[in-house]
Amino acid sequence: MNAQVPPSLLTPAAVGGEASFGAHAPELAPYRTEPPQLPSGTVGKSGHLHLGFERRNERSILARLDRRVPYLVQRALYWDECMPQLPCVFIITTSGCVLQGDRLSLDVELAPGAQAHLTTQAATKIHSMDANYAAQVQTIHASDDSYLEFLPDTIIPHRHSRFHSETRISVAPSATVIYSEILLSGRKHHHVDERFGYDLYSSLITAQRPDGAPLFTEKLLIEPGRRSMQQVGVMGPFDVFGNVIVLTPKPHADRIYEQMLARVDGDAGIAFGACRLPNDCGLVFKVLGMETQQVKNKIREFWSVTREVVTGAKVPQEFLWR
After folding, report:
1. pLDDT of 64 over the 80 cut
2. Which string of b and e fits 164-200 if b means at least 16 CB within 10 Å?
3. Distances, alpha carbon 266 to alpha carbons 36, 71, 238, 258, 272, in Å
4. For tag attachment on the chain, is the N or C end more exposed, with fewer CB atoms within 10 Å?
5. Count of beta carbons in the 10 Å neighbourhood of residue 14
6. pLDDT tens-digit profile of 281-313?
7. Beta 200-208 vs 162-171: how paired, if at all?
């Protein structure tokens, strides 16, 4: 494979190492105590997954797979009838949820012209914690003319959980990366105190060109115990937040932007809109909703528009069990 991960992405955080997870996140300072069961980042708590995709003839393949528990990937599937050449990969967590002291590292690499669709087998449940925190580092390298859809299921932080996520994207000017996060207020139907009952949720997303030229940085920091989330200008009455990053050439971004009008509908309980990212690198699309399915539907609409603009293909029908 000719594509190389830029040296700026080959930091200790990208390849593992306890000191790197949240090293530059001061909000984690109160949560450095070690769990009494197993120390953070030990065997079974330091998951690593590397996925390398290449173009072979008329379709892309999962050419390289390296994993360490609790991460699991079995094989690439080709179930997308609208893009039969597209390998679809489900990321599985064998522990069933994210636990205190977990350190997870995910590396995704697309060679020139490669395509891939990534998702998770279920929602990411961040379990309650009485010590330390959980953290993940994700690196994505998209080479020339590559195309990646990374659309995981929802993130559900349980009461008193702490989670830090850092996502680093290197994208060639001709490549397209769709990256999505859907964050719930918690298990609001389980217990009244679960709604915004988590201690901390921190998400940092940075993007750059393969030569290291920076594109943008976005950080989301939520500490419900310090500041109410249920006020105007924050979440207000909404319970679900969707955030989609699309890094794509400017002509594509212009066509997508024209089709996604902003709207606030208080009766339906949903608000959404797209904004342009700096350096003409793409768009960010944000959605607020009362219920999960509302937000998923709107993100699916945005994904559908983006895919058709970039590839000319439609998004397949949803599975019957979704």
Report:
1. yes
2. bbbbbbbbbeebbbbbbbbbbbbbbeeeeebbbbbbb
3. 46, 40, 10, 23, 11
4. C
5. 20
6. 999 999 999 999 999 999 999 999 999 999 999
7. parallel
CA-to-CA distance for 98 and 201, rounded, in angstroms?
A: 13
Domain boundaries, the chain: 39-311
Exposure class string for 83-112: b at 16+ Cβ within 10 A, else e: beebbbbbbbbebebbbbbbbbbbbbbbbb
Q: How many separate helices (H) and strands (E) can be counted in the chain?
A: 3, 18
User: How confident is the model over 122-161, as pLDDT tens digits?
Assistant: 999 999 999 999 999 999 999 999 999 999 999 999 999 9
Strand-pairing partners, residue 168, are: 139, 206
Residue 229 confidence (pLDDT):
82
> Any residues with CB less than 8 A from the CB of 252 and at least 6 apart, and which?
176, 306, 309, 310
- β-strand 263-265 against 270-276: which pairing, if any? antiparallel
- Nearest CA-CA partner of 83 in 318, 319, 316, 322: 316
Cβ-based neighbours of 44, under 8 Å, separated by 6 or more: 38, 69, 70, 95
Give the model's pLDDT for residue 5: 39
Whether omega before 70 lies within 30 degrees of 0, making that bond cis, reads: yes
Q: Distances in Å between the alpha carbon of 168 and those of 73, 221, 320?
A: 21, 17, 34
**How far, in Å, CA of 304 to CA of 6, rounded?**
30
- pLDDT tier, 3 (very low <50, low <70, confident <90, very high otherwise): very low
- β-pair partners for 91: 120
The whole-number pLDDT of residue 227 equals 86
Tell me the C-alpha distance between 242 and 148, whole Å.
Answer: 18
| 28-42, 66-80, 94-108, 209-223: the lowest-pLDDT one | 28-42
